[in-house]
Amino acid sequence: MLNKSAITTMLPVSDVDRATRFYGETLGLTLRGKGPDGAPYFAAGMGDAIGLMPAKDTMPSKHTVLSFEVDDVAAEIKELEGRGVRFEDYDLPDLRTENHIAEMGGEKAAWFTDSEGNILCLHQDSKAT
């Protein structure tokens, strides 16, 4: 049953208004509505959602919390940079980016943070290009 279920990822955020602007205006996601606790829910993917859960004393995760699969990671980077998103660059022994993009086997990926400091990713199956 679960393999046919839509998923809602709940992200704890310290400033709901700021995060709502980021996910709605900066990322361009569609607001589905709000829960009883005021948590906004954004449409994402094919029936999935992202919920922004109000939480005090929230610490951003030190790992990727969301990864968006895209057809063209370079084009998405360009569009999001135009909306003010700043992408991370890495030069580590096991992870190196060029023009914000890391190539790892059959995948390309790029990382950025949301308004709350959570790490988000764009990824593309490079075999599909």
UniProtKB/TrEMBL annotation:
<dbReference type="InterPro" id="IPR004360">
    <property type="entry name" value="Glyas_Fos-R_dOase_dom"/>
</dbReference>
<dbReference type="Pfam" id="PF00903">
    <property type="entry name" value="Glyoxalase"/>
</dbReference>
<dbReference type="InterPro" id="IPR029068">
    <property type="entry name" value="Glyas_Bleomycin-R_OHBP_Dase"/>
</dbReference>
<dbReference type="InterPro" id="IPR037523">
    <property type="entry name" value="VOC_core"/>
</dbReference>
<protein>
    <submittedName>
        <fullName>VOC family protein</fullName>
    </submittedName>
</protein>
<feature type="domain" description="VOC">
    <location>
        <begin position="5"/>
        <end position="125"/>
    </location>
</feature>
